[in-house]
Amino acid sequence: MIGSREMTTDMRARHGWVVAAAVLTMGLVVAAQQPPPATTTQGGRSSGPGRSTNLGNDPKGNPLRLALETGHVSNYDESKVKPYTLPDPLVTTSGKPVRSAEVWVHQRRPEILKLYETDIYGRIPASAPKVQWQVTGTDPSARDGAAIRKTIVGKMGDAADAPQMTLTLYTPAPAKGPVPVILLVNFRGGADGDPPVAADILSRGWGYATVVYQDIQPDRINTFDRGVIGVTLRPGQQQPGPEEWGTISAWAWGVSRILDYLATDRAVDATRVALFGHSRLGKTALWASALDDRIAAVYASCSGEMGAALARRDWGETVDDMAQNFPFWFSTTFQKYVGRWNDMPVDAHMLIALSAPRPVFITGGTADQWADPKGEFLAEVAAGPVYRLLGKKDLGVTELPPLDTPVIDGDLGWHYHTGPHAATEADWKAFLSFVGKYFK
Ligand code: GCU
Fold it and tell me: Cα separation of 68 and 433, whole Å?
């Protein structure tokens, strides 16, 4: 089933910035596996009197959006992509080449991580609460007896009314020992949150777990007083500090707390936990994996702008759109890159490389040009040198391979499906083959 989503945007002037206030109507929520086609989902109503950011679609159905601050309109023409130079992941900020794994691990990687913290997603504050986990239910014969289902509730902070996240964990009923797990950070729960390959996962002897992202932090403007961020704000404080977390960092924080729990569950092999996220949650998955190297593998589906897609490549969504429509996903400092994408000290290839040497699998869909699948592919190629430096295998190709043909021989994996903004069954199958190389 394909869900649908609407997004309306309402702009306000705040702190001298023109900051977009985006209101996501999640009434018709998006399934993690099968969200709506991009062409019907990128909304954008206006900000100032009469100015609409939604310019409709191009003749191919790609969304055309206006960024108010810069006047930028979405591009889908290769001849109009201006040349760009990516920052070199293997040159330090002070200009020194990175020639060893040691310099990468101890110097360059921390530098890049810090840049993402201060300038893009925002740092998780030290005041982030502890989470108390409690198993609240067990079904020994879930999925027609194929799985044991556990419900585990994590209370964020000590307050009686502290927000809670619910984790649902399925492990194969016949398992004798701890099993690898695929963790899905999802748009919605229940059976709709299950991966389309759930039976396959279980029959391989692996488990899967799901959490609904808005348990951790609401996905709406002006809701910093709620979720985990709300727990950390001081009385009278409206929003996190300028370099502190937006909602993507908050969701990533939640993933780490789930990893804490999984490490205590004897049914789970916590050294083999892969993380899946789609779209904004694909961005979240990449960032969570950068922050937490207990994540053994990442599957970022259609993650697009400020996920796996190169921001410098002007195709589909841009930094300008994103800062306008989803300011709360990022730190406030991210706003400074509106119209200045080439000045960002980072780009998507570096976000991907922060997971190295761990395996990363990236997907795009032909009908999801808003997310710039080619830009995702190019970022993955450009992350290759870091993988090679660490003794791992890059993607193995530098030109876009044929559609619907998984590229999974290396430690970086790729699949470009024909079809919508979704994690398709074919994507999932390719991912299982890819991660199967590590989950032996
Ligand atoms: C919007 C947004 C994308 C995001 C997507 C989603 O389309 O512009 O960046 O990935 O929502 O999360 O579904």
Answer: 43
